[in-house]
């Protein structure tokens, strides 16, 4: 996956918010920017909106942009990950571990065909 892939950015955002939650640190608003992730602002807003509407995060407001079909985002200081977002991170982590194990088995026993 490319570094600007939707799932890569979403995973990074959720991971950051989860770390802030676990450590009790405030979310640094300078980290939650499109520049931090090296993507366009409209794409960053899209990802945040999808995470919010999907129930993965809370603490943003979706606002209309005058003269545009797309929506903007206002991030509040109370932005945080929700249990569904934590669950996504846990499942994603488990899938990655499973894929790694499968790859190791495939490399160890090359005659076994394992579908990716």
Report on this structure.
The protein is of the alpha+beta class and 116 residues long. The chain has a domain at 6-82. The chain has helices at 6-23, 34-37, 41-53, 83-108, and strands spanning 57-64, 71-81. It has a two-stranded antiparallel sheet.
Task: Write a concise synopsis of the structure shown.
Helix content is 53%, strand content 16%.
What are its keywords?
single chain; 116 residues; alpha+beta; two-stranded antiparallel ribbon; 2 strands; globular; disordered C terminus
Secondary structure: elements and pairs:
Elements: H1 6-23, H2 34-37, H3 41-53, E1 57-64, E2 71-81, H4 83-108
Strand order of the largest sheet: 1-2
Output the helix-strand order.
Answer: HHHEEH
DSSP helix fraction: 40-55%
What is the C-alpha radius of gyration, as a whole number of Å?
A: 17 Å
Report the major sheet.
2 strands, antiparallel
Distance between the termini: 15 Å
Could you list the spans in which at least 5 consecutive residues all have pLDDT below 50?
A: 112-116
Number of strands: 2
SS element count, helices: 4
Percent strand: 15-25%
Quickly give the structural class.
Answer: alpha+beta
Shape: globular
Mean pLDDT: 84
């Amino acid at each position: 996956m490319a570094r600007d892939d939707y799932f890569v950015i979403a995973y990074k955002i959720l991971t950051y918010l989860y770390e802030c939650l676990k450590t009790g640190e405030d979310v640094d608003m300078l980290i939650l920017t499109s520049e931090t992730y090296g993507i366009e602002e409209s794409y960053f807003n899209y990802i945040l909106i999808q995470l919010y509407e999907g129930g993965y995060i809370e603490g943003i407001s979706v606002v209309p942009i005058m003269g545009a079909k797309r929506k903007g985002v206002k991030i509040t200081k109370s932005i945080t990950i929700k249990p569904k977002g934590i669950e996504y991170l846990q499942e994603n982590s488990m899938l990655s571990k499973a894929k790694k194990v499968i790859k190791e088995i495939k490399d160890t026993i090359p005659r076994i065909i394992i579908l990716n």
